Amino acid sequence: MVRDRFQANQCAEKLKALSEPIRLRIVDLLRDGSRTVGEIAGLLDQELVNISHHLGILYHAGLVEREKQGRYMHYRLHAALVLDENNSHQFNLGCCRLEIPEDAPSEGAS
């Protein structure tokens, strides 16, 4: 019983971390490989501090890994999250699977 509650809590934490559209966009960007906070901020046209905050939430939920390389912190999807390297749009959250379509429209696209 305790284990089930723990797994439910872990699942809820991951889903909560993905509940913000900007975080889903970050996960989508990281499908292509590791990136720095600055790269992500530039690609998403967001402030560094905001991206850093969202990456921290994704990191603490176990969805991304980070590695310091020189002066920069590089973020990538957690290895256990990607179901198949050849199919990087499906993610294993442990309790469920998430699929981000490869041709997902960007926000504001008509």
Automatic annotation (TrEMBL):
Pfam families: HTH_5. PROSITE patterns: HTH_ARSR_2. Residues 3-94 form the HTH arsR-type domain. InterPro entries: ArsR-like_HTH, HTH_ArsR_DNA-bd_dom, Metal_resp_trans_reg, WH-like_DNA-bd_sf, WH_DNA-bd_sf. GO terms for molecular function: DNA binding; DNA-binding transcription factor activity. CDD domains: HTH_ARSR. The keyword Magnesium does not apply. This is Regulatory protein ArsR. It comes from Rubinisphaera brasiliensis (strain ATCC 49424 / DSM 5305 / JCM 21570 / IAM 15109 / NBRC 103401 / IFAM 1448) (Planctomyces brasiliensis). The lineage of its organism: Bacteria, Pseudomonadati, Planctomycetota, Planctomycetia, Planctomycetales.
